[in-house]
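For anyone still unconvinced, we reproduce a single protein record, the chain in one-letter code, the fold tokenised, and leave readers to judge:
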Amino acid sequence: MERTRIALCVSVAVLLLGAPGCSLQSLKDSNKRLKESNDRLVTENNRLESELATLEQRWAGQPSTPEAPTTIVASDPGKKLDSRDLLLGDDGVSVEETSQGIRVRIADRVFFQLGQAKLSKQGQQILDRVARLVNDHPDQLVRVDGHTDDTPIRKVRNLYPTNWELSSARACVVVRYLVDRGTVDVNRIFPAGFSYYRPVARGRTVSARKQNRRVEIMILNERTDAAL
């Protein structure tokens, strides 16, 4: 009995002495894993910062490499406007030839925050490129169309009682920028607001409403001398 009691005491002592060693090893392992995770995060952060710098150069209209310029090569003077000249390569921008002329369709999120008519930095950079191209074809009229979704105005009702006012205000902001900053001739450009009455997507889903909120810049087939 006495021997059994002594053996139990020795076993407990061994366990107590070994416990701190196990705990220390566990901490070392955890520290190693955290260090490896931190190294991966640093590497990923460096990669993202590099991508961000490239994107910032792109939005500024500067080529990120000599082989990949983002500026638009305009058509020869007098040449009929071609939609290929308007391939801006920006997310949220599409170009299409219609019976009226060439339509540049730009999602409202590129230009404006929801329910607002203040032009974004990204929108200004896109309009700078559009203005340069438009000015290379001085004989064609330009109409800027504002479109909203069917969501009623609530938060900014004091500024825009209905979607008529909001769509018109957005079109006017784009026109004013193209005239003031893009030096587009004021006699050949005009705004139009269509509220939500010309949707490109039917239904009241989030996706449909997102597509319907847009600005369209129409470079019309109609010539300025015909409008005088």
